[in-house]
Amino acid sequence: MAIQTRGTFTELYDNIDKSVFTILFDAQKELPKIWADLINVKTSDRKFERVMSVTGVGDIPEKGEGAPYTSSVIRPGWTKDFIHTEFGAMFEVTETALEDDQYDQLAQNGRWFMFASRVVEEKRAALLYNNGFTTEQSPDGVAIFSTAHVLKAGGTARNRPTTDADLSATSLERALIDLQTETKVEAGQIVAPATSLTLVVAPENEFQAHRLINSQLRPGVADNDVNALKKRNWTVVVNPYLTDADAWFVQDSNKKRHGMTSYTRVPISMQAPRTDPRTGNRLYPVRWRRSFGCSFWQGCYGNPGV
User: Fold this and answer.
1) Is the terminal CB of the chain with fewer CB neighbours within 10 Å at N or C?
2) Which residues pair with residue 200 across a beta bridge?
């Protein structure tokens, strides 16, 4: 276990101009929280949370005059468990180091721990997108973004293209078409597509994204066709935690209408400082419990690019 002593940061105890300690929160700004704008955040008071979809009834058949009604039942759909992950670390500093810190840097350990904790949350949330074509699964047991989502009542649907493509007017139009024709409930019926959409891109695609949705005329071509993409209400979210610069995602701006979900079991908190009775060292723990996952795939669309 690492213990902060005078020897681990000798500069705090030398006669060095205090102005040299221009640290992160003095000179740089922390990134605003990204993941909570994309993911539906809920609270949990249980060991884990289980979500379940419902399979409604199929298409209503024709009925002849005087003929009996065909009966239908509503059945359970897919289930998924959200297992909360526990995170924690501790800052341990000797009494001597605290006493002799001329610049009060060690006493500010809390903001470093909170900053690091928030970055970890961003990285974990981004895994839903970074691994959404492979290991991160929706309740039906396939990747979140798949060409073969299994509908409980039979058949399949998709929320990624059959041919991957980089972000362009053509590929974004294809995504909107797919969202209108492939967003189906477990019984197989098409549901209303989103009209307010969030486009999630890596920094490398930020400017392309804004050109596509904000140009008055169709971007990237010589004619003067109107830019039909502007018919939708768009929000662009640039996420530097996306690991594939070519990947991009579209999801409903209403977080209740897509399944990207996080449960807060215990929020990030710096616990009360305590003293080790054997050494007198001061202990500053940080801890939280949270889960991330996909409750249902509908309302999200992903394209890994090429």
Assistant:
1) N
2) 237, 249
Residue 101: count other Cβ atoms within 10 Å of its Cβ: 18
CA 270 vs. chain centroid, Å, equals: 24
**C-beta separation of 93 from 109 below 8 A:** yes
* Pairing assessment for the beta strands 282-294 and 85-93 based on DSSP bridges: antiparallel
What gap in Å lies between CA 207 and CA 274, rounded to an integer? 49
Q: What pTM, to 2 d.p., does this model score? A: 0.88
Q: What is the pLDDT of residues 18-72, one digit of tens each?
A: 555 555 555 567 889 999 999 999 999 999 999 999 999 999 999 999 999 999 9
Phi, psi of 10 (to 5 degrees): -65, -25
Question: 3-class secondary structure for the chain?
Answer: CCCECHHHCHHHHCCCCHHHCCCHHHHCCCCCCCHHHHCEEEECCCCEEEEEEEECCCCCCCCCCCCCCCCCCCEEEEEEEEECEEEEEEEEECHHHHHHCCCCCHHHHHHHHHHHHHHHHHHHHHHHHHCCCCCCECCCCCECCCCCEECCCCCEECCCCCCCCCCCHHHHHHHHHHHHHHCECCCCCECCCCCEEEEEECHHHHHHHHHHHHCCECCCCCCCCECHHHHCEEEEEECCCCCCCCCEEEEECCHHHCCEEEEEEEEEEECCCEECCCCCCEEEEEEEEEEEEECCCCCEEEECCC
Q: What is the pLDDT of residue 51?
A: 96
In the chain (306 residues long), the average pLDDT of successive 10-residue segments reads 72 58 60 95 97 94 95 95 96 84 70 90 98 98 97 96 96 96 95 92 97 88 83 96 98 96 96 90 92 97 98
d(CA 145, CA 129): 9
